[in-house]
Sequence to fold (419 residues):
Amino acid sequence: MLPSDPEKSRISLSCPEVAVFFDLAVESARGILRGFTQYIRLNSPWNVNFVSKTHSEVDPSSLKNWDGDGILAHIPNMESLHEILSKRCPTVLLARDIAQDLSGCHRPDSPLGPVFVRCDNAAIGKMAAEYFLEKGFRKFAYVPYSRNVCWCEERRSAFVSALKERGFSVSQFREGTSTYPENMASACSEDVPASDWFSRREELQHWLEELPKPAAVFTANDFRGRQVLEVCQRAGIPVPYDVAVLGVDNDLPVCEMSYPSLSSIEIDWERAGRLCGEALDAMMHGKVPTGEMTYRPIRIVSRNSTEFFQVSDRLVVQILELIRISRGENLRVSDIVEALPVSERSAQERFKKAVGHSIMEEIKRVRMRNICRLVEETELPFNEIALSFGFENANHLGQLFKKQFGLTMGEYRRKNKRD
Fold:
């Protein structure tokens, strides 16, 4: 029997209907939606309508005949924003690029919102600076994504400021010039569409070639980082020996398919999604969300693009590159010598002088580092990992692994697995 007064019932007779506008082609959106889904699963169910097109195709006008209870959106432009706000329902936005233009729209004391869930971009820039300093770099550079987005400027400003406090300057790429002033508050005012980037490759290549080396290059996101790596490869600039590259987002397909693989700052996107769920839930119950609506970087995932050696000997750079490309798999010193115009004795002497250990020690180090990454970051069977690196079975590899790390591969995977 239904309660006599449904208004007083603690049990909802229908699911709230929520519209979500996101570009699912990028890791940030996928991560946010994972966190958003986690919140929904732990709380009351919602009927979620996804509009998951590309960034340029998200069309809020599809809301014209929609009459729902709440909206979650990552807004690409002001036109889309006004379309969404016209629905006058509880709204949560991840609008990092246009939030400064919303003073007339923001209603912080209203359950309709919009409420902004923000990324701590200053923490990202500072983390990048500290990472490069710890690795021993003394020359730094920054490549933006687009100068009309504020998150790009916030990351740049924090990176520059953190290094300036330590007495270092930063070369900053800008189409048309090689740098732009550190105190330029409107550095994001001029748009550089991502689709036009490849038409600017010559300019970027010239800028990279002119950078003082070795240079630590921080890019606004992983897409820019990948493009910088592509230009370096095209120009014959050895990475990471002359230029090391760090991106942001830890978008696995982008990072792992880059050449070399791209190091990146991982952001707590799932926390962002949970915050969005909490805020929207409160607003749909007529409450104003309270508490901090900010998510932060978690860690830096180091890959080959920042594996730094201060090496000036071009022969040693070539040897390091051959080892990296081979992953240390079934590689002998004689194989390396055959590929280079040098005797084995000379190669060994020059390598040890520059790096501090032998070529074979470096081969083993790179091989074990790659094995470790597969053990930690994948669910591949240990026998498959062993075979792919030239071991007859997992037992032999397991013995070497435990000797080096003090843990079996299974223990290491369980210890380092992230929830």
Notes: Residues 359-377 form the longest helix (19 residues).
